[in-house]
Structures are given as structure tokens and as C-alpha cells.
Amino acid sequence: MKRRIHISVLSIKLLVGALFFGIVMCVINSFVSYKEFKKQVEGLYETVTRQFAETAISYIDPDRIFKWLTDGQDGTWDSMNARLNELTETAQLAYVYLTVVSPDYKSRIYVFDTVNSQVFNEPFPLGHVESLEKKTPDYIENLRLLIEKGVSHSYFSYKKDGGHVTTSIPVHDFMGKTIAIMSVVKPMHEIAEYKTNYLRSLIIAALTFTLLFIGLYALSLVFGVVRPLMFIIDETSHFAEHHGELSGVLKRIKNRDELGVLAKAVEKMSADMNRYISDLTTATAEKERLGAELNVATKIQAEMLPRVFPPYENHPEIELFASMTPAKEVGGDFYDFYMTDDDHFAVVVGDVSGKGVPAALFMVIAKTLLKDAAYQFATPAEVFTHVNNILCEGNDSGLFVTCWMAFLEISTGKIHFANAGHTSPVLYKGGKVSYLKSKPNLMLAAMPGVTYADHEIQISSGDRFFLYTDGITEATNAKNELYGEERLLSLLQNTKGLSSKEVLSMVHDDLDDFVREAPQFDDITMLEMILKETKPKDSAEKELRISADDKNMDAVNDFIHACLPDSCSPALINKIDLAVEEIFVNIAHYAYNPEVGEAWISASFVDNVLTIVFKDNGKEFNPIAKDDPDITLSAEERDIGGLGIFLTKKFMDSVDYKYKDGQNILTLRKRIE
């Protein structure tokens, strides 16, 4: 199918531009040519009139000029005047006159003045004085140059009939001194006709060549530029409307100039664009998949960190609040806290080297190992020594983690802590704020076999700890200035009477005010712990009232762990955890479904017997009424469900259920020697 060539706006602009510049060049060439013509004609007239002026001078006797002005005309003057008249008529001059200029250039005296018979003016007589005071400064300056320096001068005056030229040359005496001026005025009647004929010929020739040029230029423009350009424009429109596909019309462009290069570039762009769209579609899908996975990872990481504040309703002596703000979707900072027994509270803050997913994975491993080890060892130093050796195994990526961990004995206020290359916490004690300085040991996972030092400090009611990672003190503003330890310490001096949550909010606000629009380069983690009061150990029954939700499982486990004796082995703790999780998850999933209600959990350890009672106001349900599964069968052959409550009954000494006053009541008992 043939494509119709449209007259584009660009084509019109190009043609109009060519026409405009053609006319301009025509005018310029005509003007320059006319100026040259005029210059040549004036040069010719100037030469001719100078020759007539020199001829006129040859007719007179310069040495008698002043005698004539004094004594008047005589026979010689008459003879000379007759010859000048003859020259005026013969050469078709308008005037020939000889004048003497006064020394002050204010007047001149006529010696000779001949007038052509066709001019009809009377000549000035000998001795006629003419004032020069109304002459222009240029006119006077030309007289001065002519008399003082002998510079000839020609003046051209143009009128409708052609005008005239006046040429003045100096007249010298026998000593060579300029004593007078000989002036010849010649009409230029013929110049008007010359000018008209010349301009007519010039304009006709210029217009002819201009129109010819524009015609040839238009043809060249249409076939050499416009036609290929329209092909390219149509093809790019087709490219946009058909998702990067071309119709093939560009192959008709055979130009070897920039338009040909452009056509080939469009064809290459189409191929590249189609390939790019394909790659981009694949990359976008992959990015969306990774983004979804990162969102899940961000949620998982946030859920791994404790988020219930205050953490323990049965331990009002501890007030605590914490937060972690990752620099990317997931981060390497973490914090954790838990009761290792009824009287010991562990708190830890760590910072994994690097950022992003690798740091987050390493953080999960370190946090889990630290929590497990906290139930097995008596001091943070022993925990660090144990965890460090495990983290060093197979750590080919070279990641490490700085960490600060403390065990608080609630009944006495005694704290044991260890520092694995972490920033020192801020201690508020006795109304004074200072960094809890200690010689830090090597960070975890840096080198196996490291022994960590244990430190001890005594705190009292009202004392507080502010734990943080270096994302706070090393935060920078737009001027690349560090937030710094001194600013943090100065800020924390004004926290008396504030809650732990208010302290973290104050630090956040001050940090935001410092960095303003500067980007966050590191994870920011902080934790504020306040010891409200010390409380002696109590073996009486304790109760936890909590929302029946899976996310509160850690709080339930910590509550049970706080009731366990120090002699409880890790293996037995794991069995108790499994039984407690089975019962609490059953309440969360089935008691109030689809709503969420509350669960009451009480625990006591009396006469070496741990008693745990679960209560809820949900639907009546006896989990132990179901027959035990036949564990001799394979997993494919057994009925689904029942294994968890079966293991609970196996791990516990007794499991009892009753429904009373609208409550499900389930009691677990385990003797611990």
C-alpha cells in the first residue's frame, strides 16, 4: 500500500524559511551591488570633475588673484573669465567658481563665478562675499583640510533629477602655498537613468535566481528530507500504536545522510525496545515477587521481636519499651527480653554487620541461639562464649554481631552483663546519667574460642538503662555531621519522671530533628528498661490474663518459665513448653472462633509440683475426651489431629478438664524433683 505524502508543518516551515532567507539574500545582494555601483559612479564623477577643476586652474594666473580683489577686474581677468565660461558650457558644467576663504573660515570672497546658460542663475561678481557661518561643521572641516593640508574634496548631492557633484581642489601660488579654492559643480542627470536601469536589471536577475534556487531547494527538500522524514514520523506513530512493532516502510529510505542513520536507528530501537519490554516484564515480575517476599520477611522479622509492652503483667517491677527501625526492608539489628526464671530477667541488644536479607538471616540465628543459651547458663558471659563458638561454625560469609546482654536479679537489683564489641549503654542511677563503660570483648562470630568477661553492677528502684545500636550515634545530617554520644547523653539527662516509651519517643524526635532530610544509612534500635521496685521471690500462685492470640505465645512461655525452679532441665522445659503451647493454641483457635477472647493462666510450684491451670469463657470443649491416636500406624494411615494432646498427656503427670460456671478449665501437673 502506497503512503500518501502529507504536507507537514515542518515542511511548510522549511519552505517559508527558504523563501524568507532567499528574499533577504536578494535584498542584501541588491543593496551591496547598488552600493558598489554607486561607489564606482561617484569615483568616475569625482575623477572627471577633478580634471575639469585642474583645467580651470590652468586658465588663470593665481599670482594675480589678490591684485584683482584689490584693484578690480581688468583685461586679463575678463579673458580668463571668458575661457572659464567656455569650459562651463563646453563641459556641460553647472558652475565653476574660484573663492578665497577668510582665515577664520567665517566667509569667502568670489574671484571667478561662471554659470551654465541652462541654469538660469546670475553669477556672483568679483569680490562678492559669502558668509560661511551657517555651513555645517563638516563643511568647514573640509575647507580647513583643503587649505591647510591640500586635501581635495568631492561632495555628492542626490535629488529626484539625479543631483550634482561638487569637487574642490586647492589653488597654489608660485611658492606652493594654497591661496584659493577652485570648485567645479557638474550635474548628474544621467545617473538617475543609470540607477533605474541598473536596479531593474539587478532585481530581475536576483528574483529569477532566487525563485530558481527556492524551486530547486523545494524539490531537494521534498525528496531528500521531507519524504524520508514523513516515513520516519509515520513509522514512529505505528511504533507507538502497535507496541513497538514496525511496518517495514523505513527500508524504502536509501539516504546515506543523517536521515538514513536515523531510520536505521529507529529500526534498531524497535528491536531493542521489544527486547527491553520482554526483559522488563520478566524483571518486573521478579521484582514484584521479591518485593512480596521482602514484605513477608519484614513482617516476620517484626513479629520475631517482642512487641507487648509492658512485657509482664505479673512483674510490675520492670518497665520496658523498645523499637527497631531498619534502614532497608529487613535489618540486622535486634532486641530481646525474657524471664529466665521467676527472679531473673534477661535483656539483649545486638547489631549484625551488613544490611538487608543476609544480616536479617544472621540476626534470626543469633537471637535464637542467645535466647536458648540464656536458659542454660547462669551469666551473659557464659552465654556469649557458647553462642560465639556456634556462630563461628560455617560462617563463610564473614558476618559478625556486636551484642550487649544483661541478667537482672529482680529481688536484689543485681545485674550481670557482658559486652561483645557493642556500644556502651547509658545508665541513669541516683539521678546521674553516664555511659556504663566496660572493656568490650570481641564481637560474636569473629573468632572461635573467645572467652567473654562477666561484669556486675547493683541498681536500685528508679534506676534505668538505655540500650541502643550505633545507628543512633552514627546518624549523619546533610552536613555529614555525626549525631554523637555527647548529644545522646545530654538528651538523656532530662528524662527524669518520663516513662520508657516517652524516652524513646523523645530520642526519635531529636534524631529526626538532627538528620532532617538526610537518608537513613543504618538500622536504629533502642530499648529503655526501668527498675520500678525490687521484689523477693514468691512461690505462691501467679496468674496471667492475656488475649487468646498466637502472637502472645512468647509471653505465655515467659510467664511459665518464671514459675519454674532453677533445677529444671532444658529437656523438661521443652516438654512443658510443648504442652503449654498445645493448650494455649487450642484456646486461641477454637474457644472464641472467629472472635478473639481472653485466657486466664495460673501457675504455682508447691512441694515440687508445677500446677498450670488454663481458663477461658469460650465454647465448651474437652480436648482430652478424644481417643489417643494409634502411633503404631504410619502417618498416612493415622487420622488427622490428636497427636499434640496425646504428647501433652505423655509429658505431664496429669491432665484434667472440667466445664464450670461457663468456663473451660484445664489443669496440667508435673512433678519436678
General description of the model:
This protein is α+β, with helices and mostly antiparallel strands and 673 residues long. The protein contains 14 helices and 21 strands. The chain has helices spanning 9-58, 65-71, 75-90, 137-149, 189-241, 258-304, 356-374, 380-392, 470-473, 485-492, 500-515, 553-563, 570-591, 643-651, and strands spanning 95-101, 107-115, 129-131, 153-157, 164-172, 178-187, 318-325, 333-339, 344-352, 401-409, 414-420, 426-429, 432-435, 455-458, 464-468, 524-531, 542-547, 598-606, 609-616, 654-660, 663-671. The strands form four sheets. The chain has a six-stranded antiparallel sheet with strand order 3-2-1-6-5-4, sandwiched between helices. It has a five-stranded antiparallel sheet with strand order 7-16-15-12-13. The protein has a five-stranded antiparallel sheet with strand order 8-9-10-11-14. The radius of gyration is 57 Å and the shape is elongated. The model is unreliable at 1-5 (pLDDT under 50).
List the helices and strands and how they pair.
Layout: H1 9-58, H2 65-71, H3 75-90, E1 95-101, E2 107-115, E3 129-131, H4 137-149, E4 153-157, E5 164-172, E6 178-187, H5 189-241, H6 258-304, E7 318-325, E8 333-339, E9 344-352, H7 356-374, H8 380-392, E10 401-409, E11 414-420, E12 426-429, E13 432-435, E14 455-458, E15 464-468, H9 470-473, H10 485-492, H11 500-515, E16 524-531, E17 542-547, H12 553-563, H13 570-591, E18 598-606, E19 609-616, H14 643-651, E20 654-660, E21 663-671
Antiparallel strand pairs: 1-2, 1-6, 2-3, 4-5, 5-6, 7-16, 8-9, 9-10, 10-11, 11-14, 12-13, 12-15, 15-16, 17-18, 18-19, 19-21, 20-21
